[in-house]
Amino acid sequence: MRWMWIDRVIELVPRQRLVAVKTVSLSEEHLHDHFPAHDGLPALPIMPASLIIEGAAQAAGILVGHAEGFAEKVVLAKMNRAELSRDATPGCTLRYTASLTQIDRAGASAQVRVELAQPATGPMAFETIGAVELMFSHLDQNMAGVEFPAHNFVFGENLRTILRASGVPCDP
Question: Tens digit of pLDDT for each residue in 152-164?
Fold first, then answer.
């Protein structure tokens, strides 16, 4: 994965739950396009819902990959449901809590609770802003006869860097 929408894994219970966080920063390029100042109105930088959902998918995908020691090439197969009630703006922190609902040789399904903490001077107070239900495929198990690289191109070096920094073993 080239674009990472999580910064750190803060909790991992193998084959059950993973909690990851993402701090939204004005230095992120996508914020300048959503939405720039125009017609006398000030800029309104927000993290698009699609990228918040991608962060949920990455958190759940890590949980699925970790369940098999990152030996499988885990890809998002289907998004069953996604609901978000708020936008994330610079300074906010997103917290993704992914829970496995099913896992087998072919793939897995997961639910992700999305929470948001606004910038504040006191302790972080998270509020639930959404939920995402996802299905993942173990690519090599489901694409018989299709040639893929032998190395695990899904769990690349950027992701491994985040996992190592979070204390999560990530080398098969």
Answer: 777 888 888 999 9
Tell me which residue has tokens 């639930």. Answer: 128
Q: Give the closest residue to 61 by CA, choosing from 25, 34, 98.
A: 98
SS3 58: helix
Active site residues: 34
Give the model's pLDDT for residue 141. Answer: 86
CA 60 vs CA 11, 18, 67: distances in Å: 12, 7, 11
| Residue-level pLDDT at 23 | 96
The domains found in the chain, sorted by start residue, are 8-165 (3.10.129.10)
